[in-house]
Sequence to fold (327 residues):
Amino acid sequence: MANFAIVGATGLVGTKMIERLGESKLKVDNIYLMASSRSAGRVLEFRGRDVVVEELNEHSFDKDIDYAIFSAGGTTSLKFAPIAEEHGAIVIDNSSAWRMEEDIDLIVPECNYPKLKRRIIANPNCSTIQSVVPLKPLIDKYGVKRISYTTYQAVSGSGKGGIDDLINGRDGQAPKKYPHPIYNNVLPHIDVFLDNGYTKEEMKMIEETKKILNLGDEVSITATCARVPVLNSHSVEINITLERSAEVEDIRNILSKAPGVIVVDDPQNNIYPMAIEATGRDEVFVGRIRRDISQANSFHIWCVADNIRKGAASNAVQIAEMLEENR
Ligand code: A2P
Fold:
């Protein structure tokens, strides 16, 4: 039995966390749902019972809470995660605020296990999570020299505002979340631009991949991230150069046995991973597995996952499941 808090419970990811925790085998004794003062008093449902949303404040963690799962933005995490930690909870934080801190674990349960130097565990960036799940077993077997990512990211990754911009854009309404219309458009721009010309999203993918998979600076990684007019589920084209030679069949075999991965790869029959089929699932779907004819030991993999589930809520709940299983 464990007590849970979900901070940011009224948001897109928070709502999915409640749903995913409800589906989990975890025994939840008490659940506390927290959000801003705007949502205090709202009633949400968890496993068929009504739970009243509380306003998050300095005293929210005075109660006995085992796991506090945060998805309320970086500023809220920076302020409240240490308070929850101090009161004995294990924080699982979906924001980017803590991810690259040296003493903070950055965890994808299929790939790594927390050392728990601190009781704050970071949930990685959505596109990173779905990419490292299939990469891990390939890199374990063949080593890696280089990874190149190109993403096609759904608007749900920007929260409710992103979804509104796509839906309202169909009627010609001006965007509020994005700097340009996303309806009938593609934006090569996710998060802010940095001095090196990359966006912060692109640098998150590069740095987080290295941290999760424990890769040194001898491995080169690059990324281009684009927002596409898709409601949900991100697609990532992964181009990987392995250290040791492999055949396409080897890659397919390893991926077909990899935890959390489903191979969908029958292009002759128009069968490959697609966003509309990944939505609602926790697995990462891979296909179009083929040799990159432009360079040695290199392969293309098309990788699709539900960014709100595996890319955020489900990964966070899976971290709690993993810790409870090993308690
Ligand atoms: P609220 O709904 O009360 O604003 P999304 O990413 O979908 O916009 O969701 C963000 C989540 O984070 C919501 O649950 C939101 O609550 C919550 N949130 C945002 N700012 C704060 C804050 N300062 N304190 C507590 N919760 C916050």
The pocket of adenosine-2'-5'-diphosphate is lined by residues 8-12, 14, 35-36, 38-39, 56, 72-73, 76, 159-160 (CB under 6 Å). Residues 128-154+186-305 form a domain with the Dihydrodipicolinate Reductase; domain 2 fold (CATH 3.30.360.10). The first strand starts at residue 2 and ends at 7. Residues 128 and 151 are 10 Å apart (CA to CA).
